[in-house]
Specification:
- The protein is mostly helical.
- The protein has helices at 43-71, 74-77, 79-87, 90-103, 107-127.
- The radius of gyration is 18 Å and the shape is globular.
């Protein structure tokens, strides 16, 4: 009989409550978004592309939330409210657009980079609370 050491993890819960079991920890990126440089005349189009992607993503998340709420419960559907908050976060959106203009890199790469920064800040904050 093997004795496993108990590990307590802190984080932001997706749902209230306590659970015991094996946790899947993803520590490495599963995919890499390459740095795609932009020319000056491509920046406005890239920003439009980013804004259109936000609108489409929001619609898709709202549809998933609705479907999950109907098929499971409204409580289960609420997890997607957090996704919507990220998609609608004006500070995040403004930072991405500013970085596209300044760094002249693709929206996908900049968005990923900004999200990583927010995740790092969140982890630090969680560790200090």
């Amino acid at each position: 009989m093997s004795k496993e050491k108990e590990i307590i993890l802190k984080g932001i819960p997706a749902a209230p409550g306590i659970v015991t079991g094996k946790a899947l920890l993803l520590d490495r990126e599963q995919y890499v978004i390459p740095k795609r440089p932009l020319k000056d005349d491509q920046i406005a189009n890239e920003i439009r592309h980013f804004k259109d992607a936000l609108i489409q993503t929001k619609q898709e998340v709202m549809e998933i939330k609705k479907r999950i709420s109907e098929e499971l419960s409204a409580e289960h559907g609420q997890i997607f409210s957090a996704h919507l908050l990220v998609i609608e976060d004006s500070m995040l959106i403004e930072e991405v657009i500013s970085r596209i203009k300044k760094d002249k890199l693709s929206a996908e790469y900049i968005f990923q980079d900004v999200l990583k920064k927010y995740i790092r800040y969140s982890r630090r904050w969680m560790m200090n609370t």
